[in-house]
Structures are given as structure tokens and as C-alpha cells.
Amino acid sequence: MEGYDAATYGDRFADVYDDWYDDPDATEAAVAALVARARAVAPAGTTTPSLLELGAGTGRLALPLAAAGLAVTGVDASTAMFDRLAAKPGGSRVTAVVGDMAGPLPDGPFDLVVVARNTFFNLTTEAAQRACLREVARVLAPGGRLVLEAFVPTDDDGPTSSVEVRSITADRVLLFVDRHDPATSEAWSSFVDISPDGIRLRPCHVRYLRPADLDALAAACGLALDDRAEDWAGARFDDTSAHHVSTYRRSDPGSAA
Known about the structure:
Helices cover 26% and strands 34% of the residues.
């Protein structure tokens, strides 16, 4: 997508992200699962497990994770997103690092690395996705884990495109424009937000992976699948699942089993 870079999504969505994508139940389930996993994989006697969130955004997960007693570092390419995080109660508890998920990442080491809500797919080339996973393997502590949440792509016959009306009021029209190419596993979309103040475009570009392809890429980067569930509550993942929460460990000889 011409003119689109690592910061574009966050910069264009920062002002509406919390309103549009707030989901308290899902957030609570994710935080509970991540706190439990971080404490389980941290070395014995650790009182403050370390966690790195990729695409930390406005702090939906980072802030409650820090409040739960984890040492949280967040990486995001968008300063607009981090400005929102910093303005919230507890924002100073999160170490915010402006940067690309593709790396370089903060050295850590981290007991847990997290990338939630399809955010990994915001890396729009195989090279960037590979670089990210290699960096994750580098900064994970021995025995540490990567937890990655994403949708499961469906099989499509060919390219598609659509325009959908999301809402209409007397002072605003919100359209959603989408183009999808299964041949390249890419989707391009934009919300077209029309109001008396003008037209605001909120674009998104993703390169998605099916779970098996994600596992293969992770393996090539030194990460082995540990377990996969359908959701944060641990529901069984199967061929009908539309969503997955997958956990990976370092596969080098020095990592813990």
C-alpha cells in the first residue's frame, strides 16, 4: 500500500482505537492468562516476571499487566498510540519503546513476549515477519515463551473487494473499503470517515499466515510450538476454530523444555 509504513495504522487509529475496539471481557481473559503464563515460566523465586508486548498501542494489555505486578516493556511504531498510553492512569509503569516490531527489539531478556489481536500480521512482508521472530528468539530468556494471538484465515478462490456502510448519522458516514488477495495472503482496507470536518482515512494492510505456515516460519527462526488453544480461556483448538492463541518456546539446545 503506497504511503503506508510501520506507524501508519497506529497513527491513524489512535484517536478511535479505545472506543472502537474496547472489549473488557476479552481483555480480562487475556490478562489473566498472560499473568499466569509469565509467572509459570519465570525462574523460581522471581517476584516480577518480565514481559515484552509487541504492538502495545494504547495499553489495552500493557497497563493491566503492569498493574498485576509484571515488568512490562511495550514496543510500538506509533508515537500517537504511546501518547494515549502515557496519559492513562499507570502509564508510567510501562516502559514504552518506539520502534518497529521487525526489530531491533529491546535486549531483555524477557520471560514472556506477547503479540495480540492479529498484530503480528501488521508486518506486511515475509522478511519482516521472519526478522521479528528471530528477534523474539534472541530476546527470550531461557525457558521464556512467545504468545501470539491471531485469526485463522479461510480459504478463498480468488481476489475480492467490497465497500460496506458501517454507520450513517446526520453528521457522519463511516464506510469500510476492503481488498483481499489470497494468492499473496494480503488484505488492504480502510475506514472512510466522512464528517463536516472533512474526510479521514484509517488504512490497514496485513499479511496473514495460516497456523501451519506460522509454525513453519517460527521453526525456521528458532521457535517451536508449545501449545495452541482457541482462545485465552484455553478452549480446545480444532479445524473449526476461527481464532488461535499459540505459545512458542526457543528451540535451541540452551532453552528449557
